Amino acid sequence: MKKAWVVLLLLLNGCQIRTLNPHSQVAEDQAMLIYLSFAIMIVVMAVVFILLFRFAWKYKQTAKNKNDVPEEINSNKRLEITWTLFPVLLLAILAVPTILVTYQVSPKSTSEAEGEATDEAAIHIQVTAERFDWTFTYENGRQSDRLVLPVNKQAVLHLQSEDVIHSFWVPELGGKQDVIPGKEILFKVTPEKTGTFLGKCAEFCGVNHSLMRFDTNVLQEQAYRTWLQEE
């Protein structure tokens, strides 16, 4: 009974993290790769289990064939080509979109991003990670312990760490991104829906790592401007 309660609590706790409920283009692209990988896995499992049960039924021992000696077959080019090309085809189907999406959405360091085009209307936010807290500094100098973003507008997050390696993660807005001491990483995100989303450090960074969480509030642009000017 005690174990059942522990499992239930873990499941309820996990409900706060919704990786497959994307609210930005980056998160949608990453979720698409997860669904694609899962679909390919289902295809492979279906083929394996269908063949397993087919052969188990077809070649089961009966009173009629228990003394038969099967014919020895040394090669079958058709089968060998099939089980070689089929995995290659599946890997290609997965690899091509994975490379394209990864190249497109991967954050870059400040030096790597020099000369890259950025939305001129984008907002820039300094994100500082330190054990065991997050600090968000906005363009007008306001600091907050929560991330506030306008909807449908690109935000460039300047990720920096004051001590050890942390990992910035807001599941509904994009995948995990390591925050490395001495290196500024630019993470671009454009939220597509208003709401409050849980963010956290996804890299174990010490005894109070579990407390390193923050809220991400996505507001209408006017509400965002109003919040920015508040004390």
TrEMBL record:
<keyword id="KW-0813">Transport</keyword>
<feature type="domain" description="Cytochrome oxidase subunit II copper A binding">
    <location>
        <begin position="120"/>
        <end position="230"/>
    </location>
</feature>
<comment type="function">
    <text>Subunits I and II form the functional core of the enzyme complex. Electrons originating in cytochrome c are transferred via heme a and Cu(A) to the binuclear center formed by heme a3 and Cu(B).</text>
</comment>
<feature type="domain" description="Cytochrome oxidase subunit II transmembrane region profile">
    <location>
        <begin position="11"/>
        <end position="109"/>
    </location>
</feature>
<keyword id="KW-0249">Electron transport</keyword>
<feature type="transmembrane region" description="Helical">
    <location>
        <begin position="83"/>
        <end position="103"/>
    </location>
</feature>
<feature type="transmembrane region" description="Helical">
    <location>
        <begin position="33"/>
        <end position="57"/>
    </location>
</feature>
<dbReference type="InterPro" id="IPR011759">
    <property type="entry name" value="Cyt_c_oxidase_su2_TM_dom"/>
</dbReference>
<dbReference type="InterPro" id="IPR008972">
    <property type="entry name" value="Cupredoxin"/>
</dbReference>
<dbReference type="InterPro" id="IPR036257">
    <property type="entry name" value="Cyt_c_oxidase_su2_TM_sf"/>
</dbReference>
<keyword id="KW-1133">Transmembrane helix</keyword>
<dbReference type="Pfam" id="PF02790">
    <property type="entry name" value="COX2_TM"/>
</dbReference>
<dbReference type="Pfam" id="PF00116">
    <property type="entry name" value="COX2"/>
</dbReference>
<dbReference type="InterPro" id="IPR014222">
    <property type="entry name" value="Cyt_c_oxidase_su2"/>
</dbReference>
<keyword id="KW-1278">Translocase</keyword>
<keyword id="KW-0472">Membrane</keyword>
<protein>
    <recommendedName>
        <fullName>Cytochrome c oxidase subunit 2</fullName>
        <ecNumber>7.1.1.9</ecNumber>
    </recommendedName>
</protein>
<dbReference type="InterPro" id="IPR001505">
    <property type="entry name" value="Copper_CuA"/>
</dbReference>
<comment type="similarity">
    <text>Belongs to the cytochrome c oxidase subunit 2 family.</text>
</comment>
<keyword id="KW-0812">Transmembrane</keyword>
<keyword id="KW-0186">Copper</keyword>
<keyword id="KW-0479">Metal-binding</keyword>
<keyword id="KW-0679">Respiratory chain</keyword>
<dbReference type="InterPro" id="IPR002429">
    <property type="entry name" value="CcO_II-like_C"/>
</dbReference>
<dbReference type="InterPro" id="IPR045187">
    <property type="entry name" value="CcO_II"/>
</dbReference>
